[in-house]
Amino acid sequence: MKTLLAATLVSLVALAPVAQGQAPASAAKPTTAVATFAGGCFWCMEPPYDKLPGVLSTTSGYMGGAKRNPTYEEVSGGATGHTEVVQVLYDPSKVSYEKLLDVFWVNIDPTVKDRQFCDAGSQYRTAIFVH
């Protein structure tokens, strides 16, 4: 009986902010978020994001593909199935995801397949990845 009473009391205390119309502390907005974009050559996609206030860092890498830990030479050869991407770590209180999308669309040509400007091949296809 004491265990049931204790469990009920703990539940009521935990749900009190929700009952008052407040979000629990664990639902607070994150101070950082991650976005990942494929827009051709990853080195070409980093600078436009690096210039944005609120972007904390950018990291070039690969997504997709079947081979574990491919080298740059393997991916740029086009046979691994990977896509060159840039991962953006940002502060959503300073820059919105919508602004990151605006930068993406300005820096790609969405009318061509598996190519961005002078870079051609499936490793340069465009994509927006969701986390």
Question: Could you walk me through the main structural features you see in this protein, from its secondary elements to its overall organization?
Answer:
- The chain has a four-stranded antiparallel sheet with strand order 2-3-1-6, with helices on one face. Strands 4-5 form a two-stranded antiparallel ribbon.
- It is globular, with a radius of gyration of 21 Å.
- It has one domain: Peptide methionine sulphoxide reductase MsrA (Peptide Methionine Sulfoxide Reductase, Chain A), CATH 3.30.1060.10.
- By secondary structure, the chain is of the alpha+beta class.
- About 8% of the residues have low confidence.
- The protein has four helices and six strands.
- The longest helix is centred in the first third of the chain and has 18 residues.
- Helices cover 32% and strands 26% of the residues.
Q: What does the secondary structure layout of this molecule look like, with pairings?
A:
Blueprint: H1 2-19, E1 33-39, H2 42-50, E2 55-64, H3 72-76, E3 82-90, H4 97-106, E4 115-116, E5 119-120, E6 126-129
Antiparallel strand pairs: 1-3, 1-6, 2-3, 4-5
Q: Quick one: biggest sheet?
A: 4 strands, antiparallel
Report the CATH topology name. Peptide Methionine Sulfoxide Reductase, Chain A
CATH C-level class: Alpha Beta
Termini distance? 44 Å
Number of alpha- plus pi-helical segments: 4
Proper CATH architecture: 2-Layer Sandwich
